[in-house]
Each structure stands twice: as structure tokens, then as C-alpha cells.
Amino acid sequence: MSEEVASSRTKNEAWEWLKALGIAIVFAFLIRTFLFAPFIVDGDSMQFTLHDREKLVVNKAIYYMTQPKPGDIVVFHAEAKRDYIKRVIAVAGDTVEVKNDQLLINGKVVEEPYLEPKRKEAEAAGVPLTEDFGPVHVGVGQVFVMGDNRRDSHDSRAIGPVDISLVVGRSEFVFWPLAEIRITR
Questions:
Q1: 85, 14, 2, 12: which is closest to 46 by C-alpha?
Q2: Which of 45, 153, 156, 171 is catalytic?
Q3: 171: closest CA among 149, 147, 153?
Q4: Residue 81: helix, strand or coil by DSSP?
Q5: Residues 77, 82, 86, 89: what is their CA dihedral angle, to the nearest 10 degrees?
Q6: Where does it reside (predicted)?
Q7: 45 in catalytic set
Q8: Residue 156's closest CA among 107, 105, 118?
Q9: Measured at the alpha carbon of residue 65, what is the angle toward residues 160 and 77, in degrees to the nearest 5?
Q10: Over the stretch 15-64, which tens digit does the pLDDT of each residue have?
Q11: How far apart are the C-alpha atoms of 160 and 163, rounded to whole Å?
Q12: Is the dihedral of CA 130, 133, 137, 142 positive or negative?
């Protein structure tokens, strides 16, 4: 084989590798921008459902097809440079309030089994898990969100209902640490 043929073959192979790498980078960018993104839990506001420093995957595409529903765990732009992760409690048209440590949506008690570990801690300390508030009406294009660790969560009780346009996506699963992999929905 001549030197020219070998050189040409090496250049073609390098070009094919560069094209493949470029395509992979474009696909990764599109997937991260429009479909899925990693998120790191920062703080204890969703404890015991999610833990500080856990890494999870957020489904960014889901809300192009549907609206957030009560119970969804969502990531949203809360501040210019900071995203929050909280649970959707109520949606547009709902009225939210807490009386005697019971969540009421449109006047009806809502069971929240995901709060049981924190509820037991609060009862042992002789304090309510969730202080009374409301009623708060959720407007069109908004959701009302709260952390599962109600005594340590900066959420819609303080910042008000969140515009759906600020919702990044829904938490799907924890992928780190490996020993804690689980679905979060």
C-alpha cells in the first residue's frame, strides 16, 4: 500500500470520527435542552422523599404534552440563578389551605402518605408539621408547590403560586448515589 493511500485512509477515518463526535455532541445538547436534565437536590426541603446532594433526572419534555398534576415533584426557576424542587399540591382553579395540620384542597382533606416520617417527627416534638395558612387561590397558569419537609421548606406558602412557565420539568428518578437509585414519581 502506498503512503498516499494510507494517508488518505487515515484522514478519512479521522474525519468519520470527528463527524460521529460532532453528531453525538449535538444529540447530547438536544436531549439536555429539550428532554432530560440532571438536577442536584440542594437542602432538606423534600426530606424524606429526596435527600440533600442526591442527583436525579428531570423530564423536561413531559410538560410540553401535559400540565403538572398534584403529587408531581417538579423543578422550577425560583430565583434568577437558583432552581427549587417541590411537590405540586394544587393546580389552577384550586383553593389551598391548611387547618389543624390537615391539607385542604377546595375544602376537602387530602391524604399525604409521603409525609408520614416527618409527621411522626413533628408529633414527637409536639408541634404541627404544617402551620395553618390560607386559603390561597391558585390562578390560571399556576401551581401551588410545597416541600415534603414542611417545617423546613421555602415554598408557595412564602413565594406564592408558581407560574407554569417557570417549571423546568418533573423529577423522574434518583441516579446518585447508586445505592439509592429509585423512581421519584
A1: 85
A2: 45
A3: 147
A4: coil
A5: -40
A6: Cell membrane; Membrane
A7: yes
A8: 105
A9: 30
A10: 778 777 777 777 666 666 656 788 999 999 999 999 999 999 999 999 99
A11: 9
A12: negative
pTM for this model (two decimals)? 0.83
pLDDT in tens, 86-126: 999 999 999 999 999 999 999 999 999 999 999 999 999 99
Q: Domain spans of the chain?
A: 1-37, 41-183
- Is 75:169 a contact under the CB 8 Å cutoff? yes
Q: Is 55 one of the catalytic residues?
A: no
Sequence letter at residue 143: V
- Which residue is catalytic, options 2, 8, 81, 86? 86
Q: Are strands 102-105 and 108-109 parallel, antiparallel or unpaired?
A: antiparallel
- 8-state DSSP, 43: S
Which residues face 59 on adjacent strands?
A: 36, 170
H/E segment holding residue 27: helix 3-30
Q: Which residue has the cell 413533628?
A: 122
Look up residue 137 and give its three cell numbers.
387561590
Contact 58, 171 (CB under 8 A): yes
The span from the CA of 129 to the CA of 122, in Å, is 5
What is the C-alpha to C-alpha distance for residues 168 and 74, in angstroms, rounded to an integer? 7
